[in-house]
Amino acid sequence: MTNSRLSRLPPWASRWLGYREHPPNEPPYIVYLWSFIGAFCGLSVLQAIFGQAQYFIDREVPPILASYGASAVLCYGAIEAPLAQPRALVVGHFISAVSAVCITKLFGLLGPEKFETLEWLCGALSTAVAIVIMQLTNTMHPPAGATALVAAVDKDVRALSWYLLPVILLSSTVVLVTALLFNNIQRRFPVFWLQPIIPPTAESSTEQGDPDVEAKSTRPHQASRSSSLTLGEVP
Known about the structure:
30% of the residues are buried. The protein is built from 13 helices and no strands. It has helices spanning 3-6, 11-14, 28-52, 54-58, 67-77, 86-108, 112-117, 119-137, 142-153, 155-158, 164-183, 202-207, 211-233.
């Protein structure tokens, strides 16, 4: 979802999706205030869903995964960082959960006793594989590495098996929705949804015939030519 598409929406809608004609420049105390409110409310909602809803209690879902505490630092505190944007948040956690579940399933084929002996290897391999996949898909989200590690070495989380995947998707969605709500009251989030907006470079401007860029690029050649002519006139 690019800024050009968001600009077509009504202002009351595009604002809550991170679109601004002019980026806000808020004083530091505003940043601190909404970072606190966003993190407090976002993590409270997340724990209320998984810790109080009987549906999740019956399935022994942990009230919260520790990795989302680290995500809160990015998504409420460092909201302009590329690592905090929606694509990295949602896809990064999901990739890490998938890699951890797949690898623990493979290690589980060795038997319970052997698995306990190699649990450390399972956790390290799950995290390493998750990092590489996030690099390949350009969805790097550092807290997601903790998701892969916890899913491999924590018995309660590992017991969820494939059910961990919808839990991760719901957790990431809750963090994203609360971040959109609290970060867009006086700040702006996200900076981008899928791909960062790359400003045009001088090279592309020259190719398009930008007169200012062309003039700047020809000045060194003109200067060197004039200096060579001057030297040639000296007897």
